Amino acid sequence: MGGYLSKRHMASDDSSIGARIRAMGSHEAYQTAMHTLDQYRGTVVACRYCPPPGLANRVALATLKRSIMCALARVVLDQPHLHVGITGEHSRHPAFVRLGQLDLGDHVEWRSCDDATQLEQAYVDTMQLQLDSRFDNLSTRPGWRLVVLHGPEVSALDILYVWNHAHHDGMSGKIFHRHLLCALNEPDKAPIDISSPSWTLDLPNASQKLPPNGEILCSWPLDPSFFLKWLYNDFKPVSFFAGSPHATWAPIQCTPYATRFHTFTVNAATVANLVSACRLHDTTVTGLIHALVLISLTSSLKPASGTGFASRTPYDLRRFLPERPPEYPWLVPKETMCNWDSAFDHEYAPELVATIREKMADAATDANPSRRLPDDVLETIWTVSACMRTEIAARLASGLRNDLLAVMGYCPDWNSQQQREARRTRYLSWLVTNLGVLDGGARDNDGWSLRRAELVLSAEVPSAAVSISIMTVKDEQMCVTCSWQDGVVEKRVGERLLWDLERWINEMGA
């Protein structure tokens, strides 16, 4: 590989405050360029925490706040990516830098809603604000923040963890909440001596403990045939080829930047039925969502908007990374926050899209519409879903060979690359990212527990027009969120997609 695979990306021996710890890997540099060029702003994993009975009231609010701040301090100190800054974001070689102190008060915002009937709207408004807010002072302040929202009774708290993707990936958001819950339930384990009003942490030297980027942890073999095929697909003129999967229906537009999002929930019983149905049809929930989005967009977009589609599935690379390798004996990837994810793309042939459009048109003109998906459309959904699962399984079976990250290593300048990308025709119509199941703990004890978890992505200007994110708490509800850039995706298309997904998921999981 080229580009970012060199010794300059190894950890530095300079332990002084403000010193460069290591240069970024290709994925980290890509995410930094996206944020620098305002093509993306942040990602959120929000969880609903239920405190123990002794803290679930306003009288104990001060004690509850201290409990959360002390637990947060433990997580921050355990995860080096939460206490480093970023420098050189406008250059070809951005890097992480060491910080000496961190004031948690600069990173945590407490919000209360005294009217319980307005609490849900307050949550939506808070989420909207976080999705549209940038991160500043990158070299002196780590790119993350926490917003804690509670109602008048403090019987539950929504904790929104928001971050700059340059620091770590989506799975890291799940790891953060898992570790925060553990710290809340084990306050006497490695207690932190910290108190208001400063809430200031003296940070350990992260020079030797900052998790390495994936490129220097493993070998990333790249077959010449795969690389040449990727170059051909990436650079061929879209207008010269009939049946292009490119998202011509959603032209890239850099400004104005604003994210629109909507979420619906699926109850635990329906989720269990849906998972069983997916297994019966040799697929997964992720594969099924891809198929349902295909059906919805094919129905709602005009035929002239495009004859094919392309979508993306991000996936976690931690399964392939070594645990406690000789060079990093302290490293346990599955418990570590870092940028260790990749993605795999899918294309949907014009013939498939035309068949779906015809079937859905016939269903719409049925003399006795049942409002349920017709049998022939259901058959297509399960067939496409199974194909998605097969493609994803084949990608994972290949391990690190011919991974997108290997191709990204050849890009010498991500700021220039992303500026060019913004002038091209959008390729991806949607992506589906599923963080899986988070164990929220038991209801019947005196500890903290989780009852809801939601992943929300801000708009990515040159990437997928629509992002569908999924997250579930064990034995609880599943949250499905759709987000898109305002003014790029028509409101009717986004809302129709959300309505279709909610209706069809509940129908298929009934």
TrEMBL record:
Example GO molecular function: N-acetyltransferase activity
Coiled-coil ranges per UniProt: none
One of the Pfam families matching this protein, by short name: AATase
Protein name, as recorded: Alcohol acetyltransferase
Source species of the chain: Massariosphaeria phaeospora
